[in-house]
């Protein structure tokens, strides 16, 4: 397939775009957290029909595709990341016929559909795990998981000292079919999520069939949960820092994550995607949730025959500082882009405190600092060469809901630890669409229908209908940025050159002539380019870059 060029007018400027064959290299994907996007049935839980109804909104925003959080049959112990059946749709969200309608509607609009696949663990209600419990020690059914005898004279101690990422031991003991206390099984998240044993051939063979099932139904690719997981050290030895995962809520234990064998899985999955692409010319995408210590280690996952993309979380975790942002961007461009892939930038997702709140801390309430910084960061991310993922609600500037009462919290982290410090419910509150009071158009149920998590009254200020009507809103900032990205040539292939800038200011030029500058301070500084910006995150007079503001220019620097 050859490149096709076209011309567009954006903000009065004529721009030429070269449409590359590899659509994913500069794609902007919108993460849909299905249960919180839009409810079509009135039960207070978002569903696939709601996603289908929202597709025109997302097309208008300008995204290239959507990533759907897990909608498979599940007991919902971890909101679908505990999968009981990888080839179905949970009745909460619809059925396979509704999925087919969603894919068809997205195809008509030119929107790609990525599914969230969970290969590290399943649900304790999965038929294979229930079979393993019934089969007993030493059985082939148990070999699909990590079952082991306990330590101590009566086997009452876990096989090793590992702790789960969501708190507590990473092992649970089972009662054997004869009623006696028996073996232990490994779960790096919750007891309801037993880890698969990828060293048993049946497991990779099953996931091969699962991939093909969804590709045959029209999926454009997969977001891979815990992509640095799957394999554990074959000896399951003690960890020198067993609580590291729980303390950091990250994949830190080197014995449980990032084992070398995992790269063979991604090479095989890539070959499956290439097989489907060869059939019809439609590229399928693999994007991994890869949490590893360095950008150089990250780069190993996006080598030409492995994953197409892997989320680069260092930008998300960087403190609000010009030096910090420059460091992580430089490392990504050197190590990841050097593989021939493009960097996959993210500022937020369903596991993180929302950007407005994260960047506002420890500012005093009402200062607006978090809002200004989040707007500036959004333009920075959209200016960087590569792909970008936007978590739902970020385009509305939603803040984190920090005061949910204990009795509505559903995050297993809270259930296992009793601590609110790292809970994720606050970024998962259902979206506000319209109106002045909850449910803000989220649910189509009768008056008084309640969303699955309560929406605060102030969500009225962020409702989608208001955002679309206000040209100064977050929504218009994202939409304008996405329009410009779509008009600029070869964004995914772009280069980046740092420009001289005052302290606290980050400025770079791309190979296509775009210049982006961000003032991380609070005081105005001279802009790196004369003239009025093409786009800015806040009021930005010619020649000046206000504090907590980013701007784009077209120039020949």
Largest sheet: spatial strand order: 3-4-5-9-10-11-12-13
Distance between the termini: 33 Å
Low-confidence runs of at least 5 consecutive residues? 1-20
SS element count, helices: 14
Indicate the percent of residues in helices: 25-40%
**Which term fits the overall shape?**
globular
Q: How many strand elements?
A: 20
How is the biggest beta sheet arranged? 8 strands, parallel, barrel
What class, by secondary structure content? alpha/beta
Q: What is the residue-mean pLDDT, rounded to a whole number?
A: 91
Radius of gyration: 24 Å
Family: Belongs to the glycosyl hydrolase 13 family.
GO molecular function: hydrolase activity
Keywords: Hydrolase
Domain Glycosyl hydrolase family 13 catalytic: 31-424
Protein architecture, described:
This protein has 557 residues and is α/β, with parallel strands linked by helices. It is 26% helix and 16% strand. Strand 1 (4-10) and strand 2 form a beta hairpin. The longest helix has 19 residues, at 262-280. The two termini are 33 Å apart. The model is unreliable at 1-20 (pLDDT under 50).
